[in-house]
Amino acid sequence: MTSLNLFHQLPLTVLDDSRKPSTADSALSRSQTLLELVNNDPNHVFLHFWPLENTVILGMIDRQLPSFENAKKYLENQGYQVAIRNIGGLAVVSDSGVLNFSLCLPIGQNDDSSFRIADGYLIMVDLIKETLKSSGKVIDVEEISQSYCPGKYDLSIDGKKFAGIAQRRKKNAVLISIYLSVSGDQEERCRLLSHFYREGKSQESRIAFPNINSQCMANLSDLLETPLTVDQLIEMIKVALSQNCFQIK
Fold it and tell me: Which residues belong to any copy of the BPL/LPL catalytic domain (predicted)?
């Protein structure tokens, strides 16, 4: 397994958009740029924080909903901008209580087999566990099937999902992205995407779109039983990296 600590000798550049939330399209475009930068210069690691206001980021599979355009229009009528990402997963919600961030790393240039797909996910899992270590909470890594955007590397506490991970690999670089529900109305996020799939007639599709149950998702602040903001979590992530010998620029 490839560990995040293998990269700590490389300079880590932080790109923080939390002070000026961008659009989903510009954030996703920046992700593509980071992949190109690391491909051209593998001696760098990038950490990109990109919170978004009232946005639903769809996966490519969501476009296969029988009534996709109606479903997309529903989201727009609810006041959400809609974007489609070119990495894995299904629809997720972003708002002022959700933190999105990405880690862009160089990977084996001469031996592609040295970096497995699972390694990308596990690197992000390790970073989140290290960040939240002081809470004393056990973070489980398993699919929460009735969450939105369910996946093998869902992060949960006491059976309630608070984060999901996706990744994209290009040549000799990998971009690992995560969303974390920190605070706000998680039930409303679930309701929004439940209606999205209903409007898209997901039940008529051969694809198994999620049947979302709000009871299996929660905010990190509720699970940790302490008030927590997106800005505070950003600082906690930076501290965790610094404590693991990363030199943050």
Answer: 39-228
